[in-house]
Amino acid sequence: MDYKVLDHEATLEDIKNYKYENQKIGVIVHIEDKDGNILLQQRGVKSRDENGLYEDIGGKFEECDLSFKDTIIREMEEEAGTDVKIELSDSIGIFHCYKKNIDINWIFIIYYGRYIEGEFKIMEPDKCEGYKFFSYDESISSDKVSDSCKFLIKSVKENYHE
């Protein structure tokens, strides 16, 4: 796993240097509330991987998406509904993560989101069992949070300053 800080909105040009077998491009939003608690979703039984574990909201970049930011907005609505208000940054980093159990090299564009208000809904019940806010310490010490998510949480904390 590795994390690269970005100082601009990510484009396809930014990921041209990543050349892995079985590579997919995705987006993730790291959401915190005003107290610094981190929102994670529990992966459902029909999720691609990490079933039962907690991870950030995210998903695959589709060819129909106009930008990575459009992708993360679409993913947030698909996964958590439209009743929640999140203040979304431009992209803050690129995260490479190899998921051995499904043999995929993910290249994720990372966004930071500040939870403002509203209710997170379970829009895809087979893929999401629920949402929970974790303190930073709780998130990195919990056996219910995936290792890749813990790595990302630490990377965001070390490298992103509002």
List keywords for this structure.
alpha+beta; 162 residues; 8-stranded mixed β-sheet; 20% helix; 8 strands; 40% strand; Nucleoside Triphosphate Pyrophosphohydrolase
Q: What does it look like?
A:
This protein is α+β, with helices and mostly antiparallel strands and 162 residues long. It has one domain (2-159): Nucleoside Triphosphate Pyrophosphohydrolase, CATH 3.90.79.10. The chain has helices at 68-80, 136-141, 147-159, and strands spanning 2-5, 23-32, 38-43, 54-55, 57-60, 84-99, 104-118, 128-134. Strands 1, 2, 3, 4, 5, 6, 7 and 8 form an eight-stranded mixed β-sheet that branches. A hairpin with a 5-residue loop joins strand 2 (23-32) and strand 3. It is globular and about 35 Å long. The two termini are 24 Å apart. The model has no long low-confidence stretch (mean pLDDT 94).
Topology-level CATH name:
Nucleoside Triphosphate Pyrophosphohydrolase
How many helices in DSSP terms? 3
| CATH architectural designation | Alpha-Beta Complex
- Total number of β-strand segments? 8
Low-pLDDT windows of residues: none
Whole-number total of structural domains: 1
The N- and C-terminal alpha carbons lie at a distance of 24 Å
Helix content: 10-25%
**Any idea of the CATH class?**
Alpha Beta
Strand content: 35-45%
Major sheet? 8 strands, mixed
Order of helices and strands: EEEEEHEEEHH
Class inferred from helices and paired strands: alpha+beta
Q: Could you provide a short overview of the structure?
A:
This protein has 162 residues and is of the alpha+beta class. The protein contains three helices and eight strands, in the order βββββαβββαα. It has one domain (2-159): Nucleoside Triphosphate Pyrophosphohydrolase, CATH 3.90.79.10.
